[in-house]
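Quick one:
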Amino acid sequence: MVNSHGNHKVFAVSPAGFAELALEIFRFQYAGNAVYRDYVNALQVNVSAVRSVVQIPFLPIRFFKTHRVQTGAAETAIVFESSGTTGTVPSRHFVSDAGLYRESFTRGFESFYGSAAGWCIIGLLPSYLERQHSSLVYMADDLVRQSGHADSGFYLYEQEQLAALLNRLERAGQKTLLIGVTFALLDFAEHCPMPLKHTVIMETGGMKGRREELVRQEVHDILQQAFHTPVIHSEYGMTELLSQAYSAGEGLFRCPPWMKVLVRDDEDPLSVYEGPGSGAINIIDLANIHSCSFIATEDAGRVFPDGSFHVFGRLDHSDLRGCSLLVV
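Output:
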């Protein structure tokens, strides 16, 4: 049985065992999470009749703005808060086990990029560094420490210093990861274009009114041209999740084994599809064992037969009808 000490089962899950463990965690969270239980009951779901992942109710992500979404009675170790425009209510994720988050993002990073110890990791995350409680900064800071490289670290708006460092790392042939919020990467590309052959550029999204909104491909085109690199990598994560998906180019994201993306019908939000299709994105994050592993996001996208996915953008707050038009 899943319990408060069953975290190891999450990261050892196999593709064949994913559905069984997801159902086990669903029952665990229904029993131990009052907010989720009330939501499931409000939908009049017969819990004993839930036999597949598509029958599991997915909690609307906005509940993290209005409720304490937590499973079990453990004390909170850390609270992550989302970024947002002035006056908006942030999402808050109450995490009872910070070690579980570290294990999730470390294993996730290693599954795509290998050990952080082989990298120089540079964070260009000014809007996140300027506020507290960012899960992205927490992750990047820990990966910086894991890298052990003397030049790993964060930059705010010191574009000339960053450019000089990248030039030095390039000359040394050092494998480097420049992970940045979108608007900061675009600003850096505009002021300090340079060829980068040994540097992976990874955008994490995020314009927040700092620049004109662009679709992901437009952002990538600008960055590819400025840095003479064939691909731009991307990270897909959010405050409400403890796991991340990564794209090694063309905005095609892949999940670690304990995370899965599904889509729900754009006219019936309770109709969820496992397999290829387009619609609003639902996420199963088994690492969210102590909050809620089943999240209905406010993003639209497409899932492909191999489980990879594209994100088309945010849904508006009207009903979901018509989000499939984004696929044209």
